[in-house]
Amino acid sequence: MTFDYSLDFKNIDFRCSPELYRVGKGEQGVLLVEPYKSELLPYWRFKTPEIARESSDKIYELFLNYLAQDDFVGADMARKFLQMGYTRSRRYANHKSGRKYKANPQKAGSQEAEKQARKEVLPLEIDPVKAESAAIFKEKWALAKTHEKYLQLMKKHQQMYE
């Protein structure tokens, strides 16, 4: 089932109401779902490989703690933060500004304009430091998304709620 953006995220505590949570695709909802966003966001950093290592280690530790508590929503949110660490540092590894497109496709006025904006990719400016940060997060993300207990809890959550 897709992530439900229509929920009142400012007033929902997903630890108390896990039945409202939908996994969605990729990183959907990563900056919306509380209290997990507030628990994980302070540790999410990727400026240098050292910072990325410390960040990914801490977020993975929280991931394991959520699993130990059978808290699938927390574990999935930690997995999303690890994935976002990879994707964002990879974007900065490819584009110094962090911007991939010449114009922001999400601000395009129509679907056609959005399609066109996605064709206008800025040239690559490879940053090996950010690429190393991305590799660090990718490793932890891979551990999380293939963790046996995580997969069991996801299946159970989807059978119960999605």
From TrEMBL:
Residues 93-102 have a biased composition (Basic residues). Residues 93-115 are annotated as: Disordered. This is DUF4385 domain-containing protein. It comes from Gloeocapsopsis crepidinum LEGE 06123. The lineage of its organism: Bacteria, Bacillati, Cyanobacteriota, Cyanophyceae, Oscillatoriophycideae.
